[in-house]
Amino acid sequence: MPDDIARPPDPAEPRPRGGHCVVLGASIAGLFAARVLSDAFDRVTVVDRDALPETDENRRGVPQGRHAHAILPAGTRGLQQLFPGLLEEFEADGVPVVREPVEMHFAPGGHLLCQEGRYADPTPTYQPTRPRLEGQVRRRVGALPGVEIIDRCEAAGLTGTPDRTRVTGVRLVRRGDGAERELAADLVVDATGRGGRTTRWLSDLGYEPPREDRIAVDIKYVSRNLRLAPGALGRRKVVIVGAAPGRPTGATLLQHGADHWMLTLIGYGGHHPPTDPGEFLEFAKPVMPSDVFEALCAAEPLDDPVAHRYPASVRRRYERLERFPEGLLVFGDAICSFNPVYGQGMSVAALQADALRECLGKGRDRLSYRFFRAAARRIEVAWQMAVGSDLSLPEVTGPRPLPVRLTNAFFDRVMTAAERDPVVAQEFVKVGSLLSSPLILLHPRTVGRVLLGNLLHPARRD
Ligand SMILES: Cc1cc2nc3c(=O)[nH]c(=O)nc-3n(C[C@H](O)[C@H](O)[C@H](O)COP(=O)(O)OP(=O)(O)OC[C@H]3O[C@@H](n4cnc5c(N)ncnc54)[C@H](O)[C@@H]3O)c2cc1C
């Protein structure tokens, strides 16, 4: 009989420790999952098809590593819990840390948020490069007892019991010589990214794949590393200018070291940034504040611009499946891949790690049933915010029912008030950082400030 994941977990089930878990994919989500699983399983094997570098450099399987990667405060909290001491190490190594509003120029939806005051929530933002973050996390996970990381091995499919109710392991193909082998596991976790191999593997095992929600955004990223003169941007360590209705382009400038910055230009369909080095900066001119643009013109390029296309946000509704085999989970972007301009992916992977820890704490009975639902709850807010923001741009096609239009109109008023009101700005940033539910913005005190702010000052576009 196939497993019916709609059956609720048995609370009386003991919480076993031990067994072998295989995690497919050694990027951020796979490593976060492995960290949590190492507390519940005797052995955790992490498999990646890439050659994993010894040093903190980019690799083929993570092309997004060449582009701006911000960790939201929700992700920072996740890193603190999963890898105590890691953030302190970053700071000691000179990784820039944003602690005050004055250090962040943040202009979402055409509104430059107020840079006055202090953050009430003390969670700072750390700015390592993406390869550095992944490299440090990988070394820590690899050093955990019972964890082995195998690279240059491609997961080609799953093995299962004859009745296909349980996954029993994974088929691996070694890169280079093509040697095949099977790796037995009590639990297989697919963290192979937005490609989402499990959907095909489920069909091979005789299961329905999950329904997919998609929002076509047709985003292009073009990025390059720059050396900026010390102090060129004053106290600012990050500049983020989001797209706005009427201007479907944006830019992020992230400080990674004393004089090392990464500039990422972003454009929705029909407004893609150029990779030609000469035209690259021109694209930034109408987007960036004029003093930042001047600093960019005076900067020394450290490499050539590189591009990345991102066609659509994709959410796979595993939590809605009625049948799913035992011994299998899906994790990270393989469940939900967000439009990257909102910087949510790694933080949501940390929230999923939290969901996994919570579920494993209650035993392994009906693990997929419980995990997919717990993960979906954490994904929901981030997904709604990303989709809602995208739908505020006429360039993005998709249904805009009344609740979406009302929510977007309300968010626009919140951002208008947040241009001058540090309290509203902080509430908005907390929501966007996935630290608080958007419902906090409906608190009468906040609504009052939003109304007053909009009455006193007309909207300003930056
Ligand atoms: C352009 C861009 C910018 C982004 N910016 C941000 C940002 O600012 N902030 C943020 O939080 N997130 C950002 N993200 C999202 C973030 O990169 C991901 O959410 C994060 O990497 C977690 O993804 P993942 O580990 O699930 O998958 P991925 O990072 O895609 O990794 C998948 C891994 O699986 C391996 N793999 C694939 N297939 C196989 C196979 N068959 N066998 C074995 N191994 C396999 C790959 O080699 C890779 O290591 C961005 C994404 C993009 C595309």
Automatic annotation (TrEMBL):
Q: Which UniProt keywords apply?
A: Monooxygenase, Oxidoreductase
Q: Which InterPro entries does the record associate with it?
A: FAD/NAD-bd_sf (IPR036188)
What domain of life?
A: Bacteria
Molecular function (Gene Ontology), one example: monooxygenase activity
* Alphabetized SUPFAM superfamilies for the sequence: FAD/NAD(P)-binding domain
| Membrane-spanning ranges | none
Q: Does the keyword Oxidoreductase apply?
A: yes
Kindly indicate whether the keyword 4Fe-4S belongs to this entry: no
- This protein is called FAD-binding monooxygenase
